[in-house]
Amino acid sequence: MSLTYELTLAGLAVGSAAALSGIGVVVTYRATGVLNLAHGAVAMFTAYVMRQLAVGWNWPLWAAAAVSLLVVAPGIGLLMGRFVFRPLSVLRSGGAGGAQALVASLGVFVLLMGAAGLLWGTGARTDAPELLPSDPWVQLGTAVALAAAVAAVTRWTRFGRELRAVVDDRRLAALSGIDADRVADAGWAFGTFTAGVTGVLLAPEYRLDPYGLPLLVMAVIGVAVAAGLRSLPAVVAVALAVGVGQAQLTRLHPEGWGEQLVQALGANLFAVLLLVAALALPRLGADSGDGFLRVPAGTLDSAAGDGRTWLVAGVLFLLPLGFAGSDLTTSVQVPALAVVLLSLVVVTGRGGQVSLGQAAYAGLGALFTALLAAGRFPGLPELPELVALGVAVLLVAPLGLLTGYPAIRRQGLALALVTLAVGVAVSRFVFAQPYATSGLTLDRPAGFTGDRAFYVLELLLLAGAVAAARALRRGRPGRALAAIRDHESGAAAAGVPVPSLKVAAFSAGAALAALGGGMLAMGARAFDPNAFDPVRGLLWFAAVVVVGADSMLGALLAAALLVGLDAGTRGGMAAAVIGILAVLLGRFPGGLYEALHRAAGRRLGRPGLTPLGMRARTRLAAGAAGTVAGSGRPRARRTDRAAGPGPRSAKDTGAPAAATAGQAGDVGDGRRGRPGPRRGDAPQPPSGAGESGPAAAEPAGASARSGGGAGRRGALRLPHPRSGSAGAVRPGHRRPAPAGSPAAGGPGEPAGPGGHRPGAGLDARGISVSYGDFSVLSGVGIRVLPGQVTALVGPNGAGKSTLFHCLAGTLRPRAGHVVLDGRDVTRRSAHARNRLGLARTFQQPAVFPSLTVAENVRVGAEQGRVRDPAAADRVLRLLGLDGPLRDRPAEDLPTGTLRRVELGRALAGAPRVLLLDEPAAGLDPEETAALVRVLRALAADGMALLVVEHDLELVGELADTVYAMAAGRIAASGTAAGVLAATAQGPGPGEGPAPTEAP
After folding, report:
1. Cα separation of 496 and 508, whole Å?
2. Would residue 779 be called left, alpha or beta, if left means φ above 0 and alpha means ψ between -120 and 50 degrees?
3. pTM for the complete prediction?
4. Which of 89, 96, 157, 793 is most buried, by CB atoms within 10 Å?
């Protein structure tokens, strides 16, 4: 028998096991929407159970296999589905919980890993029983038969039809009478069954241990990812091809360094496939959108704002210095690990970027420090240990680009897989090489060789790391990172340079991880590759998230917890505890601190009204106050008509909508029940009331002294479109734009018709967008002029949203140009357009929930075209968001207030052009009337406004120029009255949307 044939058979055996694993991952993902990263741990645990039954308790092999594969493995899947992921499905259906589902999956991984360590020890076992003959054709036949059975069930049975329906649209399937939970349970049971089969087949071929086998199976997930998590035949084909290719590579023995590379590839080709597949699929998974990681506004750090908690933490970290003994072997690990976990606080907690490969950067820091101190680093001489640590940090920081650059185009699950694959690749191709495993020792710095002295040095380095992390989490960079975490699209629209900040966050995280890794190696006096294997990175990530992702104190607590639990106990205790906390994230998605804080509030708080009762009492009190004030009638009842998913809490305890001061005398216009400002009326100042009362109805002198607000009653002070300074809009006339402003033309440029500089505003020319053969936009042109409100109307599917995204920079057209103030910005990103003077709002309010109202507005002031921090206060007063409301988190505010927060953030950067996507959605009549007044005032001040709106009455009341779209073209344009009249008539039967110019 030839060597090629033997290697092919061996590769088919490994590929068959990988195919079984991939089939289970795909079925679970299609039935539940969760990529089960615990697949490898289930495989390991099932293999341990079968070994215990067959070898430890001398059961017959068939009985051990039946219990392990038909009871234990599916039982684990059912428990995972019902008690771990079903509670999280509520969060996921609301567009949140993606990171919580990922961490819960990792929690099951580390829980099973820790349980195996506690039950069977952490040593490797080589006596796992063989379930199937070693003949690879038998294993291949098993894999092919299982894939065919799944395909047949999916295609020709009722359950298969239900499965496909749940995959396509879970909510619609449930409305059609399909029990989606039953389908999900079946998916979990089958997926974990295949995981058990994989573990039982691979255990005799590889060592059975709690760490190695789960990581091996996790790398095999790459075959499912390469198949797009959909095609079972593709899973089988890819798995067999990689298995055979990996076996054939063992025949190659090139000379020199190439031999080590080929050997590494031959042993880790599945890990390479995982990395390539993750990089090739940047938008993998349904949870890769905005707000992937939910971080509550209140954290352990915010509770420690007075410094007392930090003082307690400092005392606790100083306690080991008071121990009688001099051996602090365990204690010296805590500060070093805390520095590593701080890197996750910066990258994940503040920046919202999932990073499962921080152990790789920590290990590189340790390896580089040891090589530099030993004089074995290429091109550099032997360095003192402390200097070597600093140089290692500088060398590792740029390597953060390994994950930072792919993060530019990836979010959520896709980014998690990339970071995991990078961690696995570094572990297999760097740490597992002879130069890194051949007894590389590392001394401690001179003068700090003893445990006590070294512990003091670690505390100093930890204090520096805390200061660096604090600087990255506070101020302008901290708010920008939090904006990316909460709503990446909204952050880009506010002017935040998302790509560069992502790369900076990963580089800073890599530097901190390298510092902590070097400290760990110095504490152990050697470089140990096993201390930085990818499983450690998964455990660290889960620990940070469950304790509190955006908390530096939480990172210190997590480090002490991880080291303390494993000290003096059997290995696996820390993994088991963190795993239990992680799988409970469905109950407290904000982390352990939020759960304890809420529990304490329920136990210590006094009984009170429910949120519904509080709203009712507030409205009754407001109505009574309106009657007593002498208006002769109570104020108009407020109704929140939210469009689409609203805020998580409907508590209406924020400021009411900005309203006209003295509007009791207003007369309604009979449309939508709104008070009746008619076209041509003077813009009136909003009198948004904070919790303590009206905020904008101030005495004239008080407003003038504050630097903003109304100089007198009826005058509105706005940030000027060019300079950001306040300019007054007086009732009864439209203020002429100053020289050089967008409305009046720059120096030396002749003014166009109507006093506008030629090319000013926003001009879209010949915009065309298509998806495959389907044309969405065909040669669309639109102009948005300064000093005017332009409206874009049309039925659903007309192409309004697509055109809006092309103008805002979130979509690049196939043909055509977008010109902003005479500058072609077609290829400019959203944040670049914002800094050139174009701001936008979103159909669903794009606020940053973990930031306060004032911080939301301040992001726009710090990142916009004119960076004027003082503009935030002026905008807050303008929109009635000052007072106690300004310091409230934005996550629990009513829809009307969120609309004003988003508008305020857009205005704080002093834009020249403002794009508004259905700004009145979710507003009551009073709030809508106030919005109309504000938008008219902005146009009167020289700003160019484009409004996409379905409410034609609002358009007729607000707009100067209207463009009507139909079937991806401009069907009519002109004055509001003419276009709306033409739109009301509509085309006759068989008539197309021929462009017309309305009178």
Report:
1. 18
2. left
3. 0.79
4. 793
